[in-house]
Amino acid sequence: MKIYPANPFSGRFSCPADKSETLRCLLLSALTEGEKIIDNPLIAEDTLSMAECLKKLCAEIRFEDDKFFVRGATDLFLGETLDCGNSATTLRLLLGALSGFGVTATFTGDESLQKRDFSDIIAPLTDAGAVIESNDGLLPITLKKGVTKPLNAQTASAQVKGGVLLAGLFGKQKATVKELAPMRDVTERLLTLGGANIVKNGDTLTLDGGEVAFEKFTVGGDISSAAFFLTLGLLRGVVTVTGVDLAKNRTGFLDVLSAAGAKFKIVKTNDNLAEVTAYRSKISPFVTECEAVGTFVDEVPLLAVIAAFCNGETRIKGLSKLRNKETDRLAGTVELINLAGGSARVEGDDLVIVGTNGLKGDFAYSSIDHRMTMAATVAMLVSEKGGTINNEKSVAVSFPNFFDKLFTNSFALVGEDVTMSLSFLAHKITLDKYLSDYSFSCVSLDENSAIDFLEKSAYKSINITNPYKIKAYELMERLHRRVPKVKSVNLVSRGEGYNTDLSGMELFLNHEDYSFKDKKVLVYGSGGVARS
Asked: Which domain, by its residues, includes 71?
């Protein structure tokens, strides 16, 4: 997929549902008795992997009208092989929960998951009496016996914390987790809502009994998905994302950048949900500390893209956990920034980016890592020359409709140099009223690239400025009936060429009560209207 540079850029996007929350809602719905509804879940490969695993264990799950309907059960099948796909969260949470139930099971996953080390969740479970076989923490993992005594863990991982708490809940054991850094609190929030007895004292959580029951969950928007769009606003114009969940310890991306000069407008709409608008900002280089990583770990590649536009050295500290993602995401981020024409390196567990004037672009990119593919797309959009994405299907893991959101309702202004155009702001006023998801890009291209853009781009509608209006007229196979009169095209929509310059002039003259019927009208200028 060819990605063209956009400068300026504006857009409005509804925030995709939170993957981590959807996974936990599915698990808690399926492993407790009764019928539940999960409203606004994320439908992606990871969440479907969780659903399939739970169905193999005895739950009934169906998706209908943008909701999951789940009939849970606690009498689980034994000895099942559970394919977690690409989802490490699914594996850690299920391994913890089934250790509580004492259910035997074997866990496997895709090629990427098979390379990841799960010793972090195996260790606290085996310390509590569980019998678990693995190849030094690698898949396949076989659970042979559940926990038999209280659990204790020290971790900087929300997934490990969640697995330990679930083992304690379903195993009727006390579970104590010391948080080594700020992290997501979604597991304990949901468990507390369901009736679990959880106490937090400083950085230590203790679960000690309590029966849980649920009827309905409503999943909020995922800020890690919203961040892709917000980055475009910060670097190239203005972008609004609606329905963003600003729960505790999930705002690190906003906090780090705000401290560095980024301009955000946040309007709370409901509980933790908010409408977040990002404005083009002059952002200074920044340094983040190790203990804050858990609040923005999924957004590190985007922070690196932004840092490439900061004049000076940015350092993001303590990123060892990025080495154990779908790929080595720390090395992958360095590779992406350098491919895009920036300067990045790894020092120990720190990511160092030396920012100048942004990214040159003009590169091809392919990755099996969903977040890296989306970060590369953003890097291309904000670069000088764009690039090509070769494995866009990888986004299906967490954000299947990422490219649909960018390009289904997409509009563009193309010309030789449109970087100073205010068209994106004018269109935003109207588009905000009628569309929940849209993008508007101003694309500056030379003639050959402009021809390629008109023939191959994914944009729904393209506004064309001089000097390319005549060329567009020559390229279009289908022309609106009035176009042959003026022999220029300033709008391409769904493969058909239009000219709205003449109509616009007529509307203007009529508005001024100037009768021009049977009269000659002289138009001064060298712009599009005069040319038409």
From this structure: 19-218
